[in-house]
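hiii so um. not sure if this is the right channel but i have a protein structure encoded as tokens and i wanna go backwards to a sequence. like what aa goes where. can anyone help
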């Protein structure tokens, strides 16, 4: 199969379903596009047979069940230019270090030769002065090389920090991404601390995308992200993928977190959105959510229980928050 059309078909699939082009999602799309009769293709067709979009949650389930190879470290949207610049700085740093090593070897040999001549009495005071001046000049050159190496090392540290930050950031909303959320949740679980988490899903988002296009859909996602960030300030709000978000409430039980999230839901539902290009009313934008308490000895993983509560909120009419204990 020609790589050009294959690449475009993979990109079209990811865009159609609002999936971030991480290596694991790309692997799933490749399995679907490259072989329409593969187990992955059959599972995707079954999950989307009624016309719904493939959510990140469903994509993850399919990848696990059919054995699609998943990258251990997703890129999370790291800018390739940033990676390339960091690589170039590594090369320059290595070149400076190698030049310094070669210069040190030459410097040591020259010092030994000068010492041998002085010890043998072959040179006088004038030679000693010349050797000293040469040593001073070589020392200055070595200092400059060390300064260059220090500057390159510092620049490299900055670039690597930027790359690490981008790897944990969602490019559309600037929120932490799924990888950042999972790392934080794992840290909390290792420490045995209490927390609750909420999965939020924009209601009828496919209709928005189909009717108004992906540009409007992206703006809706950003609006929901801003509302959640403001309404749940002090708590981690991350984008799981597509129209799904997660809020991590550290130190709070589900019943304590529910009023906070519900106020954010009410704020969003009260807004009147319009299509920027036409000024046509977009209608209400709402989300549904499920909140589960985490921590030790809680039974099933909190994410799994929150997901079940989200489906309950959808089945009960959408635009609501369901939480454990209610």
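sure thing!! here u go:
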């Amino acid at each position: 199969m020609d790589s050009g059309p294959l690449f475009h078909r993979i990109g079209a699939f990811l865009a159609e379903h609002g999936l971030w082009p991480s290596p694991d999602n790309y692997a799933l799309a490749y399995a679907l596009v490259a072989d329409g009769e593969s187990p992955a293709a059959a599972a995707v067709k079954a999950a989307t047979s009624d016309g719904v979009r493939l959510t990140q949650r469903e994509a993850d389930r399919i990848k696990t069940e059919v054995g699609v190879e998943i990258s251990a470290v997703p890129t999370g949207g790291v800018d390739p230019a940033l990676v390339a610049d960091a690589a170039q700085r590594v090369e320059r740093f290595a070149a400076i270090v190698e030049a310094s090593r070669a210069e040190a070897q030459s410097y040591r040999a020259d010092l030994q030769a000068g010492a041998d001549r002085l010890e043998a009495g072959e040179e006088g005071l004038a030679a000693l002065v010349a050797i000293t001046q040469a040593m001073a000049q070589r020392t200055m050159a070595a200092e400059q090389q060390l300064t260059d190496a220090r500057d390159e090392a510092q620049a490299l540290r900055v670039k690597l920090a930027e790359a690490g930050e981008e790897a944990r950031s969602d490019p559309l909303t600037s929120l932490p991404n799924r990888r950042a959320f999972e790392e934080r949740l794992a840290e909390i679980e290792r420490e045995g601390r209490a927390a609750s988490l909420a999965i939020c899903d924009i209601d009828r988002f496919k209709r928005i995308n189909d009717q108004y296009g992906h540009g409007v859909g992206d703006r809706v996602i950003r609006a929901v992200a801003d509302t959640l960030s403001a309404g749940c300030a002090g708590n981690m709000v991350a984008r799981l993928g597509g129209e799904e978000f997660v809020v991590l409430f550290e130190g709070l039980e589900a019943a304590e977190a529910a009023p906070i999230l519900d106020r954010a839901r009410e704020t969003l539902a009260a807004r009147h959105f319009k299509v920027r290009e036409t000024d046509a009313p977009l209608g209400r934008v709402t989300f549904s959510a499920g909140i589960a308490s985490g921590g030790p000895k809680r039974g099933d993983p909190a994410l799994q229980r929150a997901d079940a509560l989200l489906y309950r909120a959808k089945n009960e009419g959408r635009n609501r928050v369901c939480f454990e204990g209610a």
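oh and The first strand starts at residue 195 and ends at 202.
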